[in-house]
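User: My instructor asked us to take a sequence, write out its structure as tokens, and then describe one feature of it. I'm not sure where to start. Here is the sequence I was given:
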Amino acid sequence: MANILALDTSSYRLGIAVSNEDAVLGEYMTLLKKNHALRLMPAVEVLLEEVGLKPKELDRIAVAHGPGSYTGVRMAVTTAKTLAWSLNIPLVSISTLELMAQAGKYFPGTVVPLIDARRQTVFTGAYQYIDGELKEVLPDKHVPLDEWLNELENVEGSFLFIGEDVGQYQTMIENVLGERLIVAEQLLANVRPGELCVLASRKEPVKNLHSFAPEYLRLAEAEVNWRDAQERGNER
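Assistant: Let's start with the prediction itself. The structure tokens for your sequence are:
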């Protein structure tokens, strides 16, 4: 595999990268409250032109499949599927949390990416640097933060928390993990989209492109409300 195009719109972050077998050729990233739907493909076209590649020269598409913003994740996944299908090339799917964790490469403890999921719950997971790569040691999940901290309390060593939303929970996290907690600087929370290309070069593509879907890790709020209403109706 030589040329990879990577897409990430899991949050306000819009990240695009292009790599070949030797290096990341170019990256584009913003963190703005603007419509990804209007900006994603024009940004892709500009970046490909800048690095001197035509779409037909791509060998693989990589996408951050969530969790994150429902709209954002869906936008990147839909675009990636469309490109992979129209160009007849493989699609590689990568956890947004795994992507975030790459900002903690080489950390000697446990790397904990975190995204706020509202109502004192978070999207999170735990990774450790083993044999030259960050490996998942606790699976990605949607979980109440207090339950997650109780689980981490039993893990030895220090913790590097990474994410744009860590600050709002920092006091709560410190109360449990104390001096074992390290919080990544905000600039490090915005991981480079080029990391998607690196991860995509190591992973197998999705087996069924048409059935591939975002990984939200929970139902959308509207779906939860509908399910609750149905359950209340069945109880009557």
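For the description part of your assignment, you could build on this observation: DSSP finds eight helices and ten strands in the chain. Try explaining in your own words what that tells you about the chain.
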